Amino acid sequence: MKKLLIAALGLLCATALVVQAQETKxxxxxxxxxxxxxxxxxxxxxxxxxxxxxxxxRAAMTKEDKQKMVDAGLxxxxxxxxxxxxxxxxxxxx
Length: 94
Fold this sequence. Notes:
Layout: H1 2-26, H2 32-45, H3 55-59, H4 63-72, H5 79-87
C-alpha cells in the first residue's frame, strides 16, 4: 500500500513539473522594441498602476497608440478580418 501511495505521489509531482514547464515555455519574451512601447503605453494609460492594461484602459487609447502596439506585435489587428470581408465578391458580382 505504501509503495502504491509513493508511486502515485511521484506521478503527481512529475505531472505538476511538466505542466509548469509547458506554461513557462508558452510565455514569450518581449523584444527591446516591445518593452519600450509597453512601458510608454503603461505610463500613458495604466490609470490604476497595476502594470496591466485592462479593457477600460485599452478603450481609452488613441488610434495611433493602438497602431503602435499592433506594429510592435503586442496586440492583434482587427482590420484584417474586416478588410477581407469588404474585399470579398458579393453574390451580385458576375
